[in-house]
Specification:
This protein has 62 residues and is α+β, with helices and mostly antiparallel strands. Helices cover 18% and strands 13% of the residues. It is built from one helix and two strands; from the N terminus they run ββα. A two-stranded antiparallel ribbon has the order 1-2. The longest helix has 11 residues. It is globular and about 40 Å long.
């Protein structure tokens, strides 16, 4: 058996969006705070705080 450096519960990285350098910024879908993404980004946008909390909820706990 070979030893792997990645764990089976480690999620693959999602697509990386380019942060906006100037507004208008998209609103967070959970708390309505401004995010670091432009309004033209499609899909669910989260502010850094909600993004971190979502990652904590989805983290492998075993």
């Amino acid at each position: 058996m070979t030893e792997s450096t990645s764990s089976y519960c480690t999620p693959e990285p999602g697509p990386q969006l380019e942060p906006a350098t100037e507004g208008p910024f998209a609103s967070c879908v959970l708390c309505q705070e401004p995010t670091e993404y432009p309004e033209s980004v499609k899909g669910i946008t989260l502010c850094p705080v909600c993004e971190w909390q979502e990652a904590q909820r989805n983290a492998c706990s075993g």
